[in-house]
Protein 1
Amino acid sequence: MLNILHENPAFLVVNKPPGLTSQPDKTGDDSLLTLAEAYCGHPLHLVHRIDRPVSGLVLFAKTTEAMVLFSAQFQARTVQKDYLAMVQNMPPKPEGTLVHYLKKNQAKNTSTVYDEEQPGTERAELRYQLLDSSKHYHLLHIQLVTGRHHQIRAQLAAIKCPIKGDVKYGARRSNPDRSIHLHAWRLAFDNPATGERILLEAPPPEEVLWQALGPAKEGWSMFRKAGN
């Protein structure tokens, strides 16, 4: 069953569970796109996607006109995308900006990280902030500046902070359900019909670690009121 966070005649926003693909792939498994189209009763446009093991906000345009306007916003980088990531190691600084150059390996479905520009690479930039820590894990708030293949996963691994469960990028062990602790938490964009600025927020999965360090924990109200 779809967890719909917002719907109007122009678009639909869904909180995707981990383990579900954003769009159909070679596995033939159900995808969020096919489920959303079945719900709406007509074709949809997938504005952006998140990886199968990742949870969180996914935006669909209901019309071609809305898709064109959303694409222009992404091109102009006026769409704000915020993630929550649970990592195994403390980052070198409590907050900072990471800039790398990524090259996608199509065969392995991974991205290789370089410190300097190389042939075939794309510049990748994100900002992070340490929010909370437990004995074994640390919660980061991630703001994407660019949107590259596996960007958050690859860049955090490059600073020796692999995401919990992400064995593809250096985590010690996988999660039992093959998810990773990366959540597309907030999305801000302009309504293509009215121009109104919209900010949507998706709660992370109801899982022990997310409940211990995530938005359900006491004290998050201060963080959210501060507008971070």
Protein 2
Amino acid sequence: MDDQILTLLILVAIAAVMLFKLRGVIGTRTGHENPNDYFGRKDERGGDNVVRMPGAKGPDYDPAEDVSRFVDPESATGQALIQMKVVDRTFDVGEFLEGAKRAYEMILLAFERGDKDSLEPLLADDVFDGFAQAIDARAAENLSVEARFIGIRGLDVVGATFDQTDGQGEVTIKFTGEMTTVVRNAAHEIVEGDPNEVRRQTDIWTFGRRMGVSDPNWLLVATGG
């Protein structure tokens, strides 16, 4: 009987050590994760075409801590970003820009491929309408696009505004991206582009969301070039 108890205790100890090591590898949930911080929104069909963002910051963070890494905090753009951070502690400029990079790639490729289902959750309604019209016009001419995203070669915050009346925050970013595109006709013949030519392009896009509310969606609200 004593040997059985000793064996059982040894097995329990081994299991406890293994559980401790496993928790060290996979981590534990604290109950404070925010799964809804993202670029984009769930569509009505139940899709989840979004770019996930990290969760909220702790109670003692400095609202201006990361603004100076990207813009002059004393500028109009810097002040707007700081105001957003004061109102919404989930907003971090560095994390926002990382999400914007992923959103930029997703939107560019979805547009080139004519994938309106992927575009719709990431765009404001009027921006989506413009993209959809361009896609439909291309389809009406029996044209298709093959695109490959190479990467982002430059990213700069060129503007930001914050409306204290309705809490709407907007951030304008200048992207310099590289990709290859080929346009083919109905016979699959190349009518534009070269699959081996890397094309560099500049886009000025504005993302917006209401700060300090439960809806965490950042959407593309304006485009330029």
